[in-house]
Design a protein that fits this description.
The chain is an alpha+beta fold.
Length: 287
């Protein structure tokens, strides 16, 4: 005979299971909305404060940027931890030999044009300017959502709660790879570290960090074997705006701890782009 305790216990377990499934499904739904928002963006403006682990230390970054995606054009002003202006950069696809125009905050005190993949442009950074603006994040999450079945996503994605972050209502979504590990990859002829990073949806710097036999981003010796993490992060925490689903905060952890953190203090989707926005002669710029 079924007693009252058994009924209550069954009801509790059913409710707990339902809530868990709801949280998992909601988390996937919110990530799908984020990817859709990123894919539909024509342009983006934002102020980002970041921390990235480089050479075992967290490096600070602060950029005020505006980006147009089709074709990619980018203007960014950086700041140091004291709020003082640092280098200013401008990139326009098909212009300036596809190089970045840089107004440095020190020597050589004149504008210089550099490849987006040069060591100066990559120094102290996990990715290049081509991943700025959320497009690479969208690619990473889209790949995860489309290459895993519902049962795997239920194990990986979880909606945590509705929170307030810096005055914004946000959905807190957690993506966790409990099977985070490394796989072995053999470099093919003409295959670069960047090629491998884009193929596996990880940051370029991660491949340099976790392989003692990789000296820099241009290290591309055919036949060399390297370790690659099987996902961008072991755990990613996202605070997604309830209206436009862009992340106000993203925190990534790997097997060593905090890998990177990106906080946006300002986000504008599809801001007005004028002839002056990506013009080096814009009087508001320092080129």
């Amino acid at each position: 005979m079924i007693n009252r305790f058994t009924i209550l216990l069954f009801s509790y377990l059913t409710l707990s299971c339902t809530n868990s499934i709801f949280a998992q499904n909601q988390g996937v739904k919110y990530l799908q909305n984020m990817v859709k928002s990123i894919q539909e963006m024509e342009s983006f403006a934002g102020v980002m404060i970041g921390k990235e682990r480089v050479d075992g230390e967290l490096k600070f970054s602060h950029s005020d940027m505006i980006i147009s995606f089709h074709p990619r054009q980018l203007y960014a002003q950086s700041f140091n931890e004291n709020g003082e202006k640092g280098p200013e950069i401008l990139y326009r696809t098909g212009q300036n030999d596809n190089k970045v125009l840089v107004s440095p905050d020190g020597f050589p005190y004149v504008n210089v044009s550099l490849s987006p993949f040069s060591m100066f442009m990559r120094k102290g950074r996990h990715n290049t300017i081509h991943e700025a603006g959320g497009t690479y994040l969208g690619q990473v999450i889209h790949t995860m959502l489309t290459q895993n079945d519902s049962s795997r996503l239920a194990e990986t994605v979880r909606y945590d709660s509705l929170i307030e972050f810096n005055g914004h209502a946000c959905y807190k979504v957690i993506v966790e790879n409990n099977e985070y590990d490394y796989v072995i990859h053999t470099l093919k002829k003409d295959e670069t570290i960047r090629d491998v990073a884009m193929m596996w949806n990880v940051s370029e710097y991660k491949l340099v960090e976790c392989n003692d036999n990789v000296d820099d981003f241009d290290d591309a010796e055919p036949g060399k074997t390297i370790r690659i993490p099987n996902s961008y992060a072991k755990q990613t925490v996202l605070y997604l705006d309830v209206n436009h689903f862009m992340p106000w905060l993203m925190i990534n952890y790997d097997d060593k701890g905090l890998y990177s953190e990106y906080e946006y203090t300002s986000i504008t989707l599809n801001p007005t782009i004028t002839d002056q926005t990506f013009n080096p002669d814009n009087p508001a710029y320092g080129f």
